[in-house]
Amino acid sequence: MKALRTYLEISLDNIEHNFRLIRERAGSAGVMAVVKADAYGHGAEEVARVLEDCGADRFAVATADEAAELRAAGITRPVMVLGVSDPSRAPELAEMRVIQTVGSLKYAEMLDSALADCGRKLLIHFAADTGMSRLGFETGAVTAVRSADEIARAARLGHLEAEGIFTHFATSEIPGEPFQREQLERFAHLLGLLRERGVELHTVHISNSGAIFNIPGARFDMVRPGIVLYGVSPDGEVLPCEGLRPAMSLRTRIVQIHEYTEPVSVSYGRRFRSEGPIRTGTVAIGYADGLHRALSGKIDMLVCGKRARQIGNICMDMSMIDLTGIPEAKVGDVVTVFGSDGDASIPVEEVAAAAGTIPYEIMCAPSPRVAKVWHYRGKIWESK
Predict the structure, then answer these.
(1) Would 266 disulfide with which of 124, 129, 270, 312, CB 3.0-4.6 Å?
(2) Confidence band (pLDDT; 50, 70, 90) for 1?
(3) Whether the Cβ atoms of residue 135 and residue 103 lie closer than 8 Å to each other
(4) Is 242 exposed, middle or buried (0-12, 13-18, 19+ CB in 10 A)?
């Protein structure tokens, strides 16, 4: 394999390990693996192939295009679109046997109309808004009855096949948080109203990553692991849920080293100024690669298994690190932004905390020019 400039190193073995741990936690419930956003940056096609072979029951994506990519990659298990697709794509989704989320009667009617001349039915799952205030039928004290009536009408539309219903926890990553109970009660109330109207939906799901570990009473028919599949805790803490193995490392290389004998300033704005002699390394990663400029001067990187402080403003294509305490570092050495290097590690949660954000955003940030290198059962290959 050629020496890559900047790349993500991804352990599919660790993802397989995490999946099997989640499968055990899920008990009798099925597992819908969430592989949206290119599997949180890990490569949706590669991740889905491994998980399909491991026994994932279904997959979840955010868009119709992501669903089509999985089908083009040969994924045969059911795929669900968690977001809103243009109604004009309903025939295409039906042809691919993709499940579409429906969050309103009006949207259901638009899908049904688009399928009038298709000759196929579109599988749908209803989204219930129990507290995210984002997408779905409302479940408040006043609105739940109206929503049940509308779902019943939508379930009887001739070109739709209503298979399931789901909702999403807003605080599942916080053990014992009271709002979880309120959401469960709202969801259960809506299910009861639907049964009164003769609507029986065979696939009911609510448990996201946090709920799988923190709310065992919310499994229903299916669980939807997302970030925990990739070995990262949903609450953003450095210590992940017990047994999970991080799957992603972000690496780059040293492209030049300077030995300054007098004080210098580093990068745009001269925000960093040395107090004396300093040895700096320029590394081939910048904000165009997904290393947020907001991280400037706030993170370490690993070089030769040791921490090197990032100094000065992060540039578009490069950034600088302090190598004064790492005399063995040389041009061409691998630098780890997050991940492990020997016995040392920088968790993605640490980088996220420095940026004032969550690990999800950091893992999804690398741009298309950042290559991916996958490891699985002794084999190594890279993105084209």
Answers:
(1) 312
(2) low
(3) yes
(4) exposed
Distance CA 278, CA 255 (A): 17
| Fold: same for 12-229 and 248-346 | no
Q: List the chain domain ranges.
A: 12-229, 248-346
- What phi and psi values does residue 246 have, to the nearest 5 degrees? -60, 140
Catalytic residues: 36, 268
Give the DSSP letter string of 290-345: T--GGGTTT-EEEETTEEEEEES---SS-EEEE-TT-TT--TT-EEEEEEEETTEE
Tokens encoding 122: 């579109």
- pLDDT, tens digit (0-9, with 9 covering 90-100), for 277-329: 999 999 999 999 999 999 999 999 999 999 999 999 999 999 999 999 999 99
Provide the H-helix boundaries in the chain: 12-26, 36-40, 44-54, 64-72, 90-95, 105-114, 143-155, 179-196, 209-214, 348-355, 359-364
Look-up: residue for tokens 């100094």?
A: 311
CATH homologous superfamily of 12-229 equals Alanine racemase (3.20.20.10)
- For residues 113 and 150, the answer to whether their CB atoms sit within 8 Å is no
Cα–Cα dist 16/247, whole Å: 10
Q: Mean pLDDT of all residues in the chain?
A: 97
Torsion of CA 160, 165, 170, 175, to 10 degrees: -160
3-state secondary structure of 105: helix
* pLDDT tens profile 196-226: 999 999 999 999 999 999 998 999 999 999 9
* Distance (Å, whole) CA 46 – CA 78: 17
Tokens of 183: 């959401």
